[in-house]
Amino acid sequence: MIVQNQMETVKISPIENQNPRVKFWYPQYSNISLDAQIGKGTTIHSHVWIADNVIVGENCRIEAFAFLPGGVILEDNVFIGPHVCFTNDRKPPSDKWDTITVQNGAKIGANASILAGVTIGEDALVGMGSVVLKDVPAGEVWAGNPAKFIKKL
Ligand SMILES: CC(C)(COP(=O)(O)OP(=O)(O)OC[C@H]1O[C@@H](n2cnc3c(N)ncnc32)[C@H](O)[C@@H]1OP(=O)(O)O)[C@@H](O)C(=O)NCCC(=O)NCCS
Question: Distance of CA 136 to CAs 24, 109, 122, 142, 148, Å?
């Protein structure tokens, strides 16, 4: 169930109750599904949307205004910059949703958009403002629109 209104959103505290080590900043300004899984040590800043069927690992940081629709999987130690927009529907509106996986330690810069079905590899770094249409291999920096290889880390 997605919590719809701001007063109710305060009740996302059940998530905190299930996992008191998740740190929320101003949860009343976020929409966090009670069905989302969020790992311990993760910090979620304000105005974040996290839908059903989202899995967030441990020690992640999700900055303000990030949008995580159903099917997004963040492994552990992932950084999601402000205004990052994940998508789950390549040809909207459709009933076919693809997943996006962000593997351990990967970082996504501010305002990046990630196409449904893409995987961001372990420890990879996506530059700010990028439009990511393809898988980003582990340990590489990709940036631009469309995002392309910049260098290895
Ligand atoms: C991707 C990034 C890490 C690259 O930084 P860097 O290693 O110092 O690389 P450089 O600045 O030397 O840039 C290397 C090349 O990539 C290009 N580039 C860098 N960042 C880019 C971006 N976001 N989009 C498009 N191109 C980019 C540069 O123009 C340069 O191209 P050139 O060689 O043709 O001149 C950095 O630009 C970035 O986007 N950081 C994320 C910041 C952010 O969102 N932080 C979130 C917390 S607020």
Answer: 29, 13, 9, 7, 9
Which residues contact residue 58 at a Cβ distance below 8 angstroms, ignoring those fewer than 6 apart? 39, 40, 41, 42, 76, 77
Residue 127 in contact with ligand 1 by CB distance below 6 A: yes
Which residue among 45, 61, 83, 107 is the active-site one? 83
Q: What is the CATH number of the domain that holds 6?
A: 2.160.10.10
Question: The pTM is what?
Answer: 0.90
128 ligand 1 Cβ < 6 A: yes
Full domain range(s) for residue 23: 2-152
For residues 109 and 128, the answer to whether their CB atoms sit within 8 Å is yes
The tens digit of pLDDT for each residue in 104-137 reads 999 999 999 999 999 999 999 999 999 999 999 9
Number of separate domains in the chain: 1
pLDDT greater than 70 at residue 7: no
